[in-house]
Design goal:
InterPro entries: Ribosomal_uL3, Ribosomal_uL3_bac/org-type, Transl_B-barrel_sf. By secondary structure, the chain is α+β, with helices and mostly antiparallel strands. It is built from two helices and six strands; from the N terminus they run ββαββββα. It has two domains: 8-137, Elongation Factor Tu (Ef-tu), domain 3 (Beta Barrel); 138-167.
Length: 167
C-alpha cells in the first residue's frame, strides 16, 4: 500500500501520523469493492465504442462501412441528448463490486483479488471492505512530538525571512 486517504466522516478514527495501516486489515474470503480509473483508449468510433454493426459492404455504399448512419429525424432539427456517437472511450471512474480477497501477503503489502480490477498496472485504486481497520502504533506520542516542533521552527524561520524581505 503506497497511500492511505481518509474520508471526512472517518476523521474520528485513532489514526495518527506515523501509525502503520497495512493490508493485514483484510482477511482471505472478504468481499470488497474496488474503484479505479479504467484504461483510456482514446477517440473511438461507434463500431468499437457502442458495438454498432456498420453499414452494408455493397449496394451503393462507398466509404460508409463504419459510420453510425442516421442520428435523428429531420423534424426536431437537433440531435437528442444521449445519442450514441463516437468519442472518448475509457479513462473513466469505474467501481467493481463483490470481488473476493483470495490471499493476503502482509510481508510484501499485497492483496490478491479474484475478479476484474479496473485500471492499469500500478494505478491508484480505492479498496472498500467491511470490518474494522487495524492500526498499529509505530512510535509513541512523545517521539512524534519533536517533529511537530521542528515544523514550527521552520515556519518561524520562513516568517522571519518574509519580514526581512518586506522591510
Amino acid at each position: 500500500m503506497r497511500e492511505l486517504r481518509i474520508k471526512k466522516e472517518q476523521d474520528n478514527m485513532e489514526i495518527k501520523r506515523g501509525d502503520i495501516v497495512d493490508v493485514s486489515s483484510f482477511n482471505e474470503g472478504d468481499i470488497v469493492q474496488i474503484t479505479g480509473t479504467s484504461k483510456g483508449k482514446g477517440f473511438q468510433g461507434v463500431v468499437k465504442r457502442h458495438r454498432f454493426h456498420g453499414g452494408p459492404k455493397s449496394h451503393g455504399h462507398k466509404d460508409q462501412l463504419r459510420m453510425p448512419g442516421s442520428i435523428g429525424a429531420k423534424g426536431p432539427a437537433h440531435v437528442f441528448k444521449g445519442t450514441r456517437m463516437g468519442g472518448q472511450m475509457g479513462n473513466e471512474r469505474i467501481t467493481t463490486k463483490n470481488l473476493e480477497v483470495v490471499k493476503v501477503d502482509a510481508g510484501q503489502g499485497e492483496l490478491y483479488i479474484k475478479g476484474a480490477v479496473p485500471g492499469a498496472r500500478n494505478s491508484f485504486i480505492i479498496i472498500q471492505g467491511e470490518g474494522e481497520m487495524e492500526v498499529r502504533s509505530m512510535k509513541s506520542e512523545t517521539e512524534s512530538a519533536p517533529k511537530e516542533k521542528v515544523e514550527d521552527k521552520e515556519a518561524s524561520k520562513q516568517e522571519q525571512v518574509m519580514d526581512e524581505v518586506r522591510e
